[in-house]
Design a protein that fits this description.
The chain is built from eleven helices and twelve strands. It is an alpha/beta fold. α1 (14-26) packs across α7 (224-237) and α4 runs parallel beside α5 (154-173). It is globular. The structure holds nicotinamide-adenine-dinucleotide (NAD). Nicotinamide-adenine-dinucleotide is lined by residues 9-10, 12-16, 35-39, 41-42, 62-64, 84-86, 88, 103, 107, 126, 128, 159, 182, 184-185, 191.
């Protein structure tokens, strides 16, 4: 890896904390600064094992604070920024849409400004498959990197807006940017508002698993460590100004996920409970990941059945983590 110091934003969240641990372990010479506002979704214990290392520094703060971001980049000789920081939950976006625009759009723009002022070598932004809108359940279509943006929720729209601004910094200022669009992640340390940890924890407590009425709606799933590996390759070899889809092709509907979790935990199917759909509930997203496979040689390694079992085991064995959330 060609970078000296990476500024990771949102590194106390689910994917960001896995990414920090992945880079820390794989690249013993790289320094990592983690800038995180510590919102409800953050947990500093996610990084307990590296907290005391001289190669890792945590700073509490907002990506939307220009003077802080500028000072961090300048004084630590940061040459790469990886932006995970975001409001990331579609359900919360219904109640607090302004927060999503503030962090995901304005915050990202301010961070871009700090990066531009300091002539960094790479600004990588973590976007989402959801910017492309929804697919019908039956179509054979997949989203490519060139598919038009058709977001339908405040979360999706804020992520799409940020992507446009990031591309504008490439074309207008020559900032060395890359963007990735990943499908739904699962794994340990995911805040229990997202579907897989919600189902696991409800099942462990013998409480009803809430299933949206449109229970055949599908999502494409990736283990968080396969996502980290893809980001590693993009940072090393990704072409500047380009975006990369990161998906596995593995689709599951919410009913299948509930059934598999109940089966693994030996709990009855009667624990499933249908609830009304949330407004703007997208039916399906599916990415074509041909570009990252062909250009960067990435492929997912972790099988869904193994990854799901490991994830369930982690939540079972780490009750103090989720009870503190
Ligand atoms: P998360 O909610 O677990 O973590 C987000 C982190 O960002 C938290 O630690 C939070 O404190 C921090 N944060 C929020 N606002 C901030 C601000 N203004 N300044 C600094 N830090 C701030 O999210 P996640 O699931 O780890 O997602 C990380 C990124 O990946 C997001 O950008 C999300 O859009 C994207 N993404 C997530 C998924 C998924 O399945 N979880 C899929 C595709 C893309």
């Amino acid at each position: 890896m060609q970078y000296r110091t990476i500024l990771v934003t949102g590194g106390c969240g689910f994917i960001g904390s896995h990414f920090i641990k992945y880079i820390f372990k794989k690249y013993p010479k790289i320094k990592i600064i983690n800038l995180d506002l510590l919102t409800y979704a953050a947990n500093q214990n996610n990084l307990e094992i590296i907290n005391k290392s001289a190669r890792y520094k945590f700073i509490k703060g907002d990506i939307g604070d220009f003077s802080l971001a500028n000072r961090i980049i300048k004084s630590n000789l940061v040459d790469c920024v990886v932006n995970f920081a975001a409001e990331s939950d579609n359900n919360r976006a219904i109640n607090f849409p302004v927060d999503f625009v503030k962090t995901n759009v304005l915050g990202t723009t301010i961070l871009l400004e700090a990066a531009r002022k300091n002539k960094i070598k790479r600004f990588h932004h973590i976007s989402t498959c959801e910017v492309f809108g929804q697919l019908s359940l039956k179509t054979k279509e997949e989203f490519s990197e060139d598919s038009p943006f058709k977001p339908r929720t405040p979360y999706n729209a804020s992520k799409a807006a940020a992507d446009h601004i990031i591309k504008s910094y490439y074309y207008t200022f020559g900032l060395p940017v890359t963007i990735s669009h990943c499908c739904n992640n699962y794994g340990s340390h995911q805040f229990p508002e997202k579907v897989i940890p919600v189902f696991i924890l409800k099942a462990l407590k013998n409480e009803p698993l809430p299933i949206f009425k449109s229970s055949k709606n599908k999502r494409e799933w990736i283990h968080v460590l396969d996502h980290c590996h893809a980001l590693d390759l993009i940072l090393q070899k990704g072409k500047l100004g380009e975006q990369y889809n990161i998906g596995t092709g593995l689709e599951k509907n919410v009913e299948e996920i509930a059934n598999e979790i109940l089966d693994i935990l030996g709990k009855p199917k009667g624990l499933r409970k249908i609830i009304p759909d949330r407004p703007g509930h997208d039916t399906r997203y599916l990415l074509s990941s041909a570009k990252i496979k062909k250009e960067l040689g990435w492929k997912p390694e972790i099988k869904w059945t193994d990854g799901l079992r490991d994830t369930i085991k982690w939540y079972k064995n780490n009750q103090t983590w989720w009870q503190s959330q």
